[in-house]
Amino acid sequence: MRLAGKGLIDRGQPVTFTFDGSTYQGFRGDTLASALLANDVRLVGRSFKYHRPRGILTAGSEEPNAMVEILEGNQQTPNVRATVQEVFDGLAARSQNRFPSLKFDLLGINDRLSPFLSAGFYYKTFMWPRPFWEKLYEPLIRRAAGLGSLSRQHDEAQYEKAWAFCDVLVIGSGPAGLMAALTAARAGADVILAEEEARMGGRLVSDNLRVDGQPGVDWVEGTLAELRALPNVRLMTRTTVTGAYDDGTFGALERVGLHCGPAPHLPRECFWRIVAGQSVLAAGALERPLAFPDNDRPGIMLASAVRSYLHRYGVVPGHRIALIANNDAARATARDLMAAGVKVAAILDTRPDASVVEDCPVYVNAQITGTAGRLGLTSITFRHAGGSATLEVDTLAMSGGWNPTLHLTCHMNGRPLWREDIAAFVPAPDAVPRLTPAGACNGTFSTAGAFREGQDAARRALAALGRSAPDLALPQAEDAPYALAAYWETPGVEGRQWLDFANDVTTKDVKLSAQENFRSVEHMKRYTTQGMAPDQGKNSNVGALAVLADATGRGIPQTGTTTFRPPYVPTSIAAMGAGGRGAGFAPQRFLTSDQASRDRGAPMIEAGLWYRPSYFPKPGETTWLEACNRETRMLRDSVGVADVSTLGKIDIQGRDAARFLDLVYTNTFSTLPVGRVRYGLMLREDGHVLDDGTSARLGEHHFLMTTTTAAAGLVMRHLDFVHQAFCAGWDVRFTSVTESWAQFAVAGPKARDLLATLLGEMPDLPFMGVADVTLGKVRARLFRISFSGEHGYEIAIPTRFGEALFRDLVARAEILGGGPYGMEALNVLRIEKGFITHAEIHGRTTAFDIGMERMVSAKKDCIGKAAAARPGMTGPERDQLVGLKATSPMGAGAHLFTPGDRVHRETDQGYVTSVCYSPTLDAHLALAFLRNGRARHGETIRVVDHLRKIDILAEVTDPVFHDKEGVKLRA
Amino acid sequence: MPDLIAKSALAGHAPLVRAGTRLAECAAAPITSIAPYPGRAAQVDAALAPLGLSFPAPNGQSASGTARLLWAGRDMAFLIGAETPAALADHASLTDQTDGWAILGLSGPLAEAALMRPVPLDLRLAAFPVGRTARAPLNHMQAILTRTDDQAFEVMVFRSMARTAWAELTEALAVLEARAKLS
Amino acid sequence: MRLTCPLCGARDRREFTYYGAEDYLNRPAPDAPPQAWDDYLHNRDNPAGVTRDLWYHDMGCSSWLLVTRNTVTHEILAVEAVADRKGGAA
Question: Which family does the UniProt entry place this protein in (chain A) (predicted)?
């Protein structure tokens, strides 16, 4: 019911929304919860396990009951707390975990079966027969228990992530937070003030409080006006700080567009990483429910939530209201309601010695023994100092005291301390470095105390930052002592008393846990699932701990502490991973020839971050293999052009450049003549092959190293390490020039002819030679190297001319009967020649394994040399590189067995790393590692690939299948 | 002999303006990496003196007229917009980086906020003043970031990744523009 | 976690790549016995407390860093460049 003239909602902006298909009205500034209560909707959900009817318990993000699905086109977001979701025009919400409807839920039967469904029931009940667990019981339980459901569609919505830096982060904008922010801001510090709710002010905008003689709301507005005007302050509403991490880093979730519906590019949420020099935790406190029989009916809610709905939203949740509390502070709920003209049936105080002076009946030493009302509260029954009674009420406000919101102080392993006087945990001092808790989250519950601590925390932060604090008078506000007597549950009654509403855990479950010897709080938690629901025990952990302490005859601090891990509120993965979808997952690297390749219809495949053409289809070709075979033959018969710019290129200069290469390569480069290129092998320090490639000597003290595409970054890191760790003083510097040059392979019998037409005059370049050439005014480099086994060249040109040169080379090749070739043909060509890639040098192969042990120079040290000589790194027990030749396809990853042997792990003789069909040899070829393989050329081996259903015989050969003597290469 | 046409990294990407903030590819200028050999600082500075430049401290730059020398990492600076003095070659390793990088200019009221999406760096003016440069990630890309004015930055990324960098910054601007429309 | 790179300043952990223990800096002589190489390559302490390990600032200046930190408190006690370390490289 909405009260006239009350609340901070914008009555000038009515909005229309739906809940379970019915249309309702609310106002801008309403949450879904307040708007539903204003429309007298009390039943909003069904509980997780027993499908009990549930209503709204709280007015904040800790809500355990009122979780709904928000519908948005074909999207639905489950488990949205109605107390957090703001209403806007067109909002569509739906209750969850019920069938067919909220009011008539078939699985409500679970509640009747509850004697059989107590904590741990599934551990005991569904033990037998064993296979039934996976096939029958678990699916049934999963269907019956649960929260919201997913749309099963991709989430196409926009999310965002961002960084922010500040001197002082203030978490929470109640009296403590606002005072801290104001103090730090006036001192000139960069301040971020983060508030979870849409409106700043905390209890100052949810309670009827006065500050400096004016309404608390007015003081908040005045303070915010000052903060907004300061350039060094950033106010972040709808932003929940979710985690405290090392070195002043915090995570925070901002609800950017969830309060107004979708708009182009408007993110739903933003996940912030905030780095703060100092921080003030002013997160307030969460009121505790009380346990009593059937304390979970719709209409039973927290006393502070009733005040929030009254003062902030102008809503009262019922017409006849009672209050039960174990403290003085909660009585404000009854007084405020009465002042607003709402009937308060009674105040029930659990304390025997509490005051009875109020404008309504007060019962002391009161304990609720039962409640009634199937879909909403209709009455309560209680005993009290003078007997027992039943009251007809539709709403019961309850307060079991307050738990400081200290969650963030636990995120770096801090363990909270128990304070007997307030019956609550408080943060341990300095639990998070450079963070100071202030106000209610620190166990100080009065408004004046919050102002004081907020200012003190800011002063502490400013001192640490080397700034002087401004002289700022503390506002006058209530400073009432926090009078409370611990009270947790109704003793000696039948009936279930709920602790964890969200996971349907009762005091009986906790006692059963203790009885079955799960007495440690961590064991109890797992036995009962207490605290493991979306609210993570915010409402119930302390109450459960108290019940467990009582059941085990220990005090609360002896029983254990409660701890919390990030995130403070449920946080969507989509927000944390914002931007990582589709093309945003990793940078895309494009070749200069990219468009030219696409123009020719080449499908592009990913090679690391690069996109490379797979093959260049011709009209009439229906499969990639046809194109690949044609391109392979084309290159062996005439000429082919391929973009090889993805290879890493590292420019190495200095008087110690040659010496450095001798250290990182197994073979010797100091003897390489200027103008020549040498193939080099690089090991890791543990003796395994890191990478291979060619290096050219461009000058006495100038080399150009080529790495594989895959290992370009890794090699750079390796060189940096070797240099900085072992020879930082050497006269050598190296710089990546990968991106400075576009480089194209031109290979085949007509490669020289092609280049002659391009260059006019063809330099007389020996095999493994390099020369500078010019193309008009453009300088370029010509290497005579080949990865195909044909007479071949690579020509490098400054990248900006890459596309033009590629198109030109392809046009010239086509005149000669050649053309471009893609990755598929490139792979066939290199397999035919037995050239290795990272399929072979995959991290577990040694120089010996790939038949290159002679490349490890005996005359000098190199990285990996000592380890490569260790026992077990060479010898007949190693899997050695061989070729395999067969008449039908083989599969990479297939394993090798001696014919006649059982196919078994213990008889495994090796594995296949690369396969192709060779049009040159009209055979299926593979490169493989075979136990003692070099001694087994000519043998027949069995190739088994269970995944591809391959089981064939192949001939073991030398890995070089084609032109073994290299005649064509050197032609 | 062909007459080869040069193409910039972001050829075809016209400058883009969102909520008063402009993203554009910067005009190409010669870039040379200069990596002094150990113990050669004085000689390097002497060779740079005719340009009015000196080797910059980390995160800094040296500028004179249209020539700039930008710190670019450990023992490395990029000379931009000037021919390399020949005398340098004896004291430092030199490579031509002109074609290796795409340079994006981002200027306007949202420039800093847009960069605070993909860049995990404190870009507040006091922490990152005009003239400051940094090697820093732009999401998953290695970048060089320079503040050229209170509200203007220059972002250098590897040429092959220019389109991704463009997309990242365009996205950040679009989001900020949508946010600005929220009342 | 944030590391203060001696060249770049305070940076988020994502800019760095972890490598392993400081031991990697103490490369045995080429003819050292196999045990020395095994110790160098594989044998490590796993202290609860202060440890020294190697990080690479690959998204920054490309410096290799020697980081002294506490594995229990997560406190970073020192960060120095490997190339500039005391008694360091040849």
Answer: Belongs to the GcvT family.
